[in-house]
Amino acid sequence: MPDDEEMVVTPWEVRGKMDYDRLIELFGTQRITPELKEKLYKMAGEEHIMLRRDLFFSHRDLDWILTEYEKGNKFIIYTGRGPSGHVHIGHLVPWIFTKWMQEKFGTRLYFQLTDDEKYFFTPDLSLDDVKRYTYENALDLLAIGFEPENTYVIQDIEHIDMMYELAVQVAKKVTFSTAKAVFGFENSMNIGGIWYPAMQAVPAFLHSWIYGTKTPCIIPCAIDQDPHWRVTRDVAERLGYYKPASIQNKFVPGLHEGGKMSASDPMSAIFTTDTPKQARKKVMAAYTGGRDTAEEQRKLGANPDICTVFMYYDFLFMPDDKELAEIERKCRGGEILCGECKQILAPRIMEFLEKHQAAREEVKDRVHEFSAARLREDIRR
Ligand code: TYM
Predict the structure, then answer these.
(1) Where are the domains positioned within the chain?
(2) Could you read off the pLDDT of 95-109 as tens digits, one per residue?
(3) Which protein residue's CA is at the shortest distance from atom 36 of ligand 1?
(4) Would you say the C-alpha torsion 296, 297, 299, 302 has a positive or negative sign?
(5) At the fourth CATH level, which superfamily is domain 266-362?
(6) Is the N or the C terminus of the chain less surrounded, counting Cβ atoms within 10 Å?
(7) Is the pTM of this model over 0.85?
(8) Could you tell me if 276 and 350 are in contact, meaning their C-beta atoms sit under 8 angstroms apart?
């Protein structure tokens, strides 16, 4: 874990001012170079805005997995969600990118819903709560537009019979001192939490285990999950599998100063279940890089580098690079005030939510079509 008081990034806590260069160094990942981006674009047949804007910025073995693909050794994609509450806009970033990768490379997706993790790690959450959020969060995933043929949603508790044989093999290879060093576990951690990293490793190997193939796996996610991949990669070859690759995004900030999104502070994040009106209220109250008075701002300009509204544009709500550059210019030059800028963002987010919520409605009765329970047939063969 970083010593730096300013920044803490673990799978269970993200706070402080993000220094992504430092995270690459601390975690020992690789930066996505322009050459690597080009290689990915060439193979995918098009660019992706989240790469172009360096929102996906870090990786492990991305170059290797693309080369394997070129050789005909196709990968599977693995990502997931811990259902401790409603999904916020930030969670959608890796999923939107995942869908693009799945489409461009025609590969299978394993999506893990870690009901066990959130039960172990969230003191006040009952199993009933977790189950409710598992279903609710699955709707958000499916609303992105995944197709059942190539998408397998794993729920740890329900599908433990398919996972346990691999989980015990992983668990035997990870010592308590490694788990403490990587995850910062303390003596007060319940033993479920200590066991849990074995479960998060499983989907990286599941396809290979079921089909008796050695299949590469790539994990799109934010960089907070990287400690899991260090452990998973460490055991992979000893279990006869490839080390999973990963491609990692930055964090969509919360709407308050300091950027933290917190489920306990509903105003700090826009949840996919917020009404458009609630979302608008949150945007209008968001922290910006503006000055104390309109007069000062017109004279001195504002600072988009620390502005949450600008970051929302960057990630999802202003895909046109020219428009983004223009608003940045106006912001720095004091030509636009924060209130006006928020008036541009709010309707975009409201429209996005309306569409997303309609898509959630449409998949309400279809969750079972995506269930990894279908894999039981393949395991028996
Ligand atoms: P969870 O539920 O905390 O997060 C789900 C996914 O969203 C990413 N993420 C974010 N991305 C952008 N901006 C943010 N503010 C932001 N906050 C979170 C996370 O990195 C993650 O990709 N233990 C995991 C569940 C899991 C998983 C996985 C995640 C199981 N297997 C494989 C990724 C890949 C968790 O609690 O994620």
Answers:
(1) 8-255, 266-362
(2) 999 999 999 999 999
(3) 82
(4) positive
(5) Tyrosyl-Transfer RNA Synthetase (1.10.240.10)
(6) C
(7) yes
(8) yes
